[in-house]
Specification:
This protein has about 100 residues and is α+β, with helices and mostly antiparallel strands. Helix content is about 35%, strand content about 15%. The relative contact order is 0.11.
């Protein structure tokens, strides 16, 4: 099956992990090329295309797994900040607890 790979971002030259889950997703969509940009640079491009200010992006550690992630806001410290993967798993847990409806 798939194994995590370390790749280098073509924009910022940072190393980033192309996870086995991401590889599985790429394969399911029949995408043959590996990502060329890290999460930070991909988010910056999406924000620029949407006409949003990239100056508000913040690098933080996920409150659950500790992974470095990028968020399009400046955390205030009032609420925990999660990476996409942990956020999705929390939403799924919430759906199960609420009978399949996320509110």
């Amino acid at each position: 099956m798939f194994q995590d790979k370390t790749l280098k971002c073509r924009d910022c030259s940072a190393d980033f992990t192309f996870t086995s889950g991401e590889q599985e997703f790429f394969a399911s969509k029949r995408l043959s090329n590996e990502p060329k940009k890290c999460q930070t640079c991909r988010l910056a491009v999406r924000m620029l295309k949407a006409g949003k200010d990239t100056q508000t992006m913040s690098r933080v550690n996920c409150a659950d797994c500790g992974a470095m992630t990028v968020v399009p806001f400046v955390p205030t410290g009032v609420a925990p900040v999660h990476c996409n993967q942990c956020m999705r798993s929390e939403k799924n847990e919430h759906k199960l607890k609420k009978g399949g409806i996320y509110s």
